[in-house]
Structure formats: C-alpha cells, structure tokens
Specification:
Length: 217
C-alpha cells in the first residue's frame, strides 16, 4: 500500500502503541512473569478480548516499542545522502537512532533497558531483531547496483543489525547512562565499525558503481 494510512489504520496503530507503552511500564515495574494480559488490558483501558485482537501473547505486547528504534534506524539509513558510503551511512543512522531526541524517547530507552534484561521477553526481542534485519536487507538492496551478490547484502544486513543488538544488550546489562562512554550511541558506533569491518560489499559498491543506484530497476 502507498500513500497516507487510513484513519482506521492510524487508530489501530495508536492503540497498539498505547498497549505497548502500558505493557512496558508494567513489565519494567513487575517483570513479564508477574504481569498478566488482563492487567495490561485494564491499565490500557481496553477489554481482554481487544488485547488479544492485537497480540496473541502478553510478551508480544512490547514488540512495537522494541521495534520502533529499528524502524527509525532503517528510515534514517534510507534517507542518508547518496554521497555517503554505505558503511558510513549505516553508522551515522545507527548513532542517530540510538541518541534520544526528546523526553518521550528517553522514556522509551529506559523502558527498553528493563525489557532487554527480562528473560521472558527474549523471544520477542529476537523476533524484533529478525524483522529489523529483513527491513535493512531490503534497504541495502535498493542502495546497491544491479548484479550485487545477494549473499553479500545479506551478510552486511546481518552484521549491521547484530551491531545494534549487541550495543543495546551491552548497554542494558550495564549501568551506563544514555549519553557518554558506554551509552547506546557510543556502543552502537563502536559495534557497527567493528562488526562490519572487512565486508566485501563495501568494496563491491565502491569499485566503480554508484552505491545510490537501484538494485532491481
């Protein structure tokens, strides 16, 4: 679908995000194990039946919140200047997406820290990570020239997405602040540089083909 989402779609997305914020607050306070789907529904002001129309299990209720950073990262990469190398564009987008721009983002990052420490939410986090990798692979494909080896694109997407995951997990397990050494943006830049170093894709795109070209025509 293209164009502006319908009013119904926007309302559904707003409801999903409200449920996600409510679940995140409860999970951060009590842990996922001690929180029921009914408690999330009551706190969100919806019926339990409505809750299950949006999420099949309570743990998945926080998926939209965990996914928001990955979505922003890929969008920033897509919007990056065409004269930037792919690797530089990825690092800049990663650092920007891991730097909270307002109080709402600060709150989301604080919630994310607690969520990533909760073993009950591990499967949800892994699914979010996999979805983010698929979005990045599609975005990289659009930025690569025709004939680029799909395996090299997939390896680059996997390495770059893993860099974000490792950075966030490391930060969540530490006592580091949201800015400065050990912060998400500090770790994100470092992990991106180290995990994507030496990938053949960067050489392929740099060797005589404009990295901003389409991959599928």
């Amino acid at each position: 679908m293209t164009g502006r989402p319908t009013l119904t779609q926007r309302r559904r997305e707003a409801t999903r995000l409200e449920i996600a914020r409510t679940a995140a607050a409860l999970f951060a306070e009590r842990g996922a194990e001690a929180t029921t789907a009914e408690e999330i529904a009551v706190a969100a002001g919806i019926s339990l039946r409505t809750f299950y129309r949006y999420f099949s299990v309570k743990e998945d209720a926080v998926a939209p919140l965990l996914a928001s950073g990955g979505q922003e990262w890929v969008e920033l990469f897509v919007a990056s200047p065409a004269d930037l190398s792919l690797r530089e564009a990825l690092e800049r987008a990663a650092v920007a997406s891991l730097t909270p721009a307002d109080e709402a983002r600060v709150e989301m990052m604080r919630w994310a820290r607690g969520l990533l420490r909760d073993p009950k939410l591990s499967a949800t986090w892994q699914r979010v990570h996999a979805d983010s990798e698929e979005r990045l692979r599609a975005a990289l494909t659009e930025r690569c020239p025709d004939g680029t080896d799909p395996l090299e694109i997939r390896l680059a997407a996997a390495a770059a997405t893993a860099a974000i995951r490792v950075a966030l997990e490391q930060w969540a397990s530490s006592g580091a602040a949201l800015a400065g050494p050990g912060s998400p943006q500090d770790l994100g830049g470092r992990c991106m540089r180290e995990l994507t170093a030496g990938l053949r894709l960067w050489e392929r795109v740099a060797d005589g083909v404009d990295g901003a070209g389409g991959a599928g025509g």
